Amino acid sequence: MRRLIGSMGSCGPSVLFGAVIAVSFLYPLARFLLLPLMPDLAPLPGLGAASGLGLSSGALWNTVRLSTEAGLLVIPPGLLVGFLLERRRWRGAGLLSAALWGVFLMPSYLLTMGWQIVVAVPFLADGAAGRLFYGEAGIVALLTVKGLAFSSVAARAGWHAVGADMDAASRVHVPAAWRRAWLTLRLLLPVSGSMFMVQMVAASQDFGIAATLGAQAHMPLVIYAIYQDLSTVPLDFTQAARLSWVLVLLALAALAMQAALARRGMATAGGYRHRPDVVPCGRGMTVLAWFLTVGILLAGVVVPLLALAVQAMGDAGAGDELLIDGEGWRGIGLSLRYAFVSAVFAVLLAALILGGRMRADGSGRVVARMLLWLTSANMAVPGVILGAAYVIAFNGRVLSLYGTPALLILAYAASHLPIAIRFLDAPFAHLHRGLGEAARVHGVSLVRRVERIYVPLLLRRLTWAWGMVFVTLFFELPLSEILYPAGSAPLGVRLLSLDDTLHYGAEARLALVAMGICLAVTAAAIVLVPRLATGSGPERTRGAGNAWKAQTLEQENV
């Protein structure tokens, strides 16, 4: 406790950042979740009154069942993807990684819409394919495809943990090939459990699929039931808070279980591990690898985009029907502004939090670690719950921000701060603390250290983190649905409105144009910002190179 108090007293900026995160995350969430027990916490009397009692048993059962099935189904392809990327060398590894990135960046509601267009073909809609798609099988299949991007990351870490030493020992002591394979699978049980937990939470919190395919299939899910309680008259914030407890507790239990499984995996394969051998694929494994890669690429990226393109051109009549209306362009412009500013705030705050661990006296490490834990807990809160919490917390006399763009930007930045921290954690961890300490000893100010040392080394990673957050925020849906200012609907709200009114052609055209604009802005930022910020002159280039060489020498001498 004394160390914590000392750290908080000696690192004022970190405490300030913690206060900002507490106001933007802890205070709204606590006020919303305590609403069933303390209705007076509602800023308006009507918001705390409940119109119904109990929980929706159908939505709860559907959520638990479908998320469990998606968690189990994602394990085999996820382990195979991790094995191919971590243990095998083949020509399609880059394409497989690109396919996973495409699946990760593809909004789930656009993924669903693309497959809806495909299944709407008469000979599919009237047959078994249509019945399966608009039912439990279709929802679980889309959730599984969407979860492959997350599960592959955990799978690669698991395959890396089973290092070369373990493989060599198993070859010596276990002569039978099938027994070695069984031993490897047993060693991968912790990471398989971790993949299951992560996918189960992600599936239970996926709002895009629940709001499109789930609603059209008349299969209620908890995440969409929360949104209905917040958007239909009479508003029932208390019932929404009760349902939110289910998702939050499920996510927290899954995160705790994941941490326990990760510790068990480290204990099982503990000790120093050499990097596993990367060997060429055999003929059979190569065929399987290409089959998996093409399947992920088609199911998660190519087929939905082609379906949107066909729908955009085929559903157009004469005259101006091919044009995007003013509301569509306005939604694109609003999303560009909201996503741009929010991504900048999220990345800057993530950099400041991670930079707190690099203080020369070590005083910022405790507070920075606390902030990291807090932002990790933020991942357990879906956007719908965070949006409802913001409605409750910022709709009174104090901090009256509801209905303003500032609240939406704040919610965007708070919800995507964990993504920025996870992406920047490794670059900041590899940045040697000796660089800043040496410059400080020689009288270099903090501003000059940031400009001459940290920016040249980290700017490219910061720009990539901004691009990833920007792309996901550009198509953000649940927070936008709840918090957007009146008359200023962002892109996601406009797309879902067109989908609800069955204007599939207009929705497809708007989605494709928005994707092109989003990718163009992101690519331009990633390419131009590092060049413009660091310059192309010999002095700036030489400064960055010397800083990198100094960092390398420091790391070698440690």
TrEMBL record:
It is found in: Cell inner membrane. Keywords: Cell inner membrane, Cell membrane, Membrane, Transmembrane, Transmembrane helix, Transport. InterPro entries: MetI-like, MetI-like_sf. Gene3D superfamilies: MetI-like (1.10.3720.10). It is a multi-pass membrane protein. GO terms for cellular component: plasma membrane. The chain crosses the membrane at residues 12-34, 70-86, 98-125, 137-162, 243-266, 287-314, 334-354, 366-393, 399-424, 458-475, 510-533. GO terms for biological process: transmembrane transport. SUPFAM superfamilies: MetI-like. Residues 332-525 form the ABC transmembrane type-1 domain. PROSITE patterns: ABC_TM1 (PS50928). This is Iron ABC transporter permease.
